[in-house]
Amino acid sequence: MSGDGESVDWLGNESGSGEGAECTGLSVECHCHTHYQFYEAEEKLLLGLVALPIIAFGVCANLTSVKVFTHKLMRSSSINWYLAVLSCSDTFTLISAFFVLALPRVGEFFRHFGATQISYWTTPYMYALMVLAQTVSVYMTVLMSVHRFIGVCFPFKAQNVLSRGRVKMAIGAVLIGALLFNTTRFFEVRVVGTCFRYNINTTMPVLVPTALRLNATYRQLFFGWAYTIVMFVLPFVSLIIVNSMVIFAVHRSRRLHAGLSTGDDTTKKQELAKEISTSIMLVGIVVVFLACNTLAFVVNILENLEETSALYQSLVSYSNLLVIINASINILIYCLFSDKYRLLLKYYLCCYWSREGEMLLTAYQYHA
Question: Exposed (0-12), middle (13-18) or buried (19+): which is 355, by Cβ within 10 Å?
Fold first, then answer.
């Protein structure tokens, strides 16, 4: 999510709830956790009531996309392997964002603090899963763009460079790299027990940051440099450069397509039109990614500058909502640009078990 801002969100409800100078951010005694601190109304609206239906839609949409991209009609194209993994990682991002961001705010809004309790108990694991899945999504987007760049700008080398074995190795490397990069996230926060909160008349888990998370050197090296470079600078620069070249290549292909006369090979024209549509779809995914994550980049910079104003806190909420939206709406891009995706979506949603559905796929395979 937005740099380190997402963790400030949920840890904020645990800080400053006790009395006495002896209470610190690491205190586990119940006299330091006697009162529950409520979220701001804006947070409850954006990350609770607004985010909840978006997350529900996104999870269903991404699971559908996984089903579509793993169908035999789609598996023949290695670019769809990236999209299948991207859909999986977006699903995990949304599920974990539900537990970390949406559930406690929705529970508080409806005064159902059992939901907030569930969020607190699961946060140490779901927070780590959230940033891990988001890392995978970011670099699946980068890999997909590089793959398309090689395919359209170096078509004669693409078959050797983009072999199935190398694509699998690249995907595996991203998964392993994301896990290694985010390993410490599993040790940044912990539940140390339960305490009674008098202002809500409820016993709540005590969620506190670990010593690792509060370590100044760790925060400077990981959040100040590593996270900023790995999650923002490298992917943003790579995506902008690579996709700019892809756009130029698509523009040249459009001119070539327009220059083909009606007497030219129809199959060649169809293949060229299909390649152009695929390139535009992938560029569209990147444009949406950059649009939804730019504010998160800004928030990360402000956090490194130790900004703590009310405006900054508001920007954190909006940036997290945009990341949730980004993880939910790729299905709209797929439906807009991919005939095959629309066909399979119709097959699964409308006539999965019918003879009509089988005939639909058979007819497509025959004409493709």
Answer: exposed
At 195, give phi and psi (nearest 5°).
-140, 150
> Cα(13)–Cα(323) distance, rounded to whole angstroms?
22
206-216: per-residue pLDDT in tens?
998 998 998 99
Identify whether 343 is part of a domain. no
State the sign of the Cα–Cα–Cα–Cα dihedral 270, 273, 275, 277: negative
Which 3 state secondary structure label does DSSP give 210?
coil
Interval 191-233: pLDDT, tens: 999 999 999 999 999 998 998 998 999 998 998 899 999 999 9
- Tens digit of each residue's pLDDT (9 = 90 or more) over 5-16: 444 444 545 544
Domains contained in the chain, number: 1
- Residue 204: beta bridge partners? 195
CATH at residue 200: 1.20.1070.10
pTM: 0.89
Confidence (pLDDT) at 154: 86
DSSP for 14-71 reads TTT-S-STT--TT--SGGG--SPPPPPHHHIIIIIIIHHHHHHHHHHHHHHHHHHHTS
